[in-house]
Amino acid sequence: MTTGVVVLNFGEPDEPTRESVLDYLERIFMNNADLEGDTTEAEARQRSRQLAERRAPGLIEEYEEIGGSPLDPQAKAQADALEAELDARGFDAMTYTGFQFTEPFIADAVEEAHEDGVDELIGLPVYPLCGASTTVASLEELTDAVDERDWDVPVHEITGWHKHPTYNRIRAENIRAFADEEGLGLTDDDTELLFSAHGTPSHYLDEGSRYDVYVEEFCDVMASELDVESYSLGFQNHGNRKIPWTEPEVEDVIADIDAERVVVEPISFMHEQSETLSELDDELREETEEVGLDFYRVPVPHDDERFAGVLADLVEPFVADFDPSYYQFRQCQCKDTPGTMCLNAPFSR
């Protein structure tokens, strides 16, 4: 039996052309059109285009400054490494990369897997912390693409996995190694560890998403691993729509830090992308230095050799066909489709 693993991610334009950025933004805004209330599809498309036109110039400038986003090639490298790891473990598996907002789209990955004749599919979002518009939405796109193709294939869905012990060690050791390299003491009174998490519209939290809970518990564990007694947490929000987002915003947190320097860990990301290379390295650095703080940003450990093993561990129960509960998987709370599994749900009694 051959298993197809569709490695899911957001996607970003790797070339800062107006056409690619506009199309990318329009897809994002259209995907979240219901955040502004009920509307017709035509109205939603018109509004999405307007928002894209307004946001595009600034984003194009960001991409030009960072030389295009490296997210897509980094994600593809992770998928290739996962396939090699599964092969080394003796499994007949093929990996496919599917992005929500840039090519190859999730539907393209499904089509490729269908042409290859795989016998089952696994949807694996490479989002460290489970969110509604990321993890859950990407899996919904996957199953929709299978249904639209009228393909009778078993689909296994994996959601939250930030509690994987090796993943926790990768992140904590990466922070510690960066601090040592820069000659920083994370427990020094004059050094503040700041976790910067990707923000999400409050609407999703009101609807039951536990993203903020996952962020807070993961930061607590990271601080414990690093022997840091206190830290700061801020969210990177996008103000393109006049809707409430997660709080506190990372810019507000920076303004209130009483220290000489700040070490920023982009806790939500497993790739370098515009949110790290531009929003943090350029915009947040500028704001940090304006209030008199030295700025240090921890790089994302996207190419850590152990990460392919983490991803392989996540799909192994499904590839090897044993009960996922043996690996502590349980029915997901954020996506309650029967059989959608995660490492976040509490034990039932």
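The record above closes out task 2.4. Task 2.5 opens with a second protein, given below.
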Amino acid sequence: MELDLREFEEVCRDLYVRALKILPPDIKAGFSELQRAETSATGRAILDTMVENVAVAERTKNILCQDTGIPIYNIRIGRGVAFDGADLKAAIRRGCERATKEFSLRSSVVHPITRKNEQTSCGIRVPIIHVDFDERPETVAVEMIPKGSGSENGSFLQMLLPSDGIGAAKRFVIDRVIELGGRVCPPTIVGVGLGGTSDLCMHLAKVAATRPLRSVCADPEGARIEAELSRAVNELGIGPQGLGGRSTSFAVHVELAATHITQNPVAVNIQCHSARRARATITPGGIAFD
């Protein structure tokens, strides 16, 4: 299959808009679970308001949050797909720019020194693009994540020593959740990266934070730790928007990678309650939006 880059550009444009306007079904189900479990009257009232905000945004075809985020595109290419890599990146950028201009989105992307905003949601090395490959024949999967700043500011890395053990990594996660309190718009998804190098560990934390709810770490030890931390975080009493209750987090997700014998890296990346993402799959049979 030869990838039609004009069609691919349209998909990238549409996914940005869909991600900003339609909350994924797993997050809606997560809200329902938290509403049933919340024991604080204030917490329940805040959760009810959040759910109503989602309903109003979708009913009026408005965006879920004013923060249009840093645009991230995760591309997974299957076997037998022909494409030019440079043209692929250019198509993603055009799609991102068109979404911003054609739908009058607020551009949240600026130069880090001059703070100049090009009003395109693009800039140096932005949109962020990750490309990976799998064995599915003639398939291209595209995921778009508009990562908001309020939650992205809840990012931390600690290069622990192996002698510190996994207990230190778990304490690091809990301490960071306590430190952040309501600043990251809880209920959140707490993404945790374990292992790798410093940059890979941070990347894994973001992969974990943007994973669908009820998904489980592929590594059994990682799955055990994310279950432990998910219980622990909701015992902290931070609650929705930091105003008290059991609904501090939808879940804690863990992703890990092998690391060096003298390293024990741990990273945290937070996803706020407006956990936006959109996906599409391109095959010879057409385009399917998740």
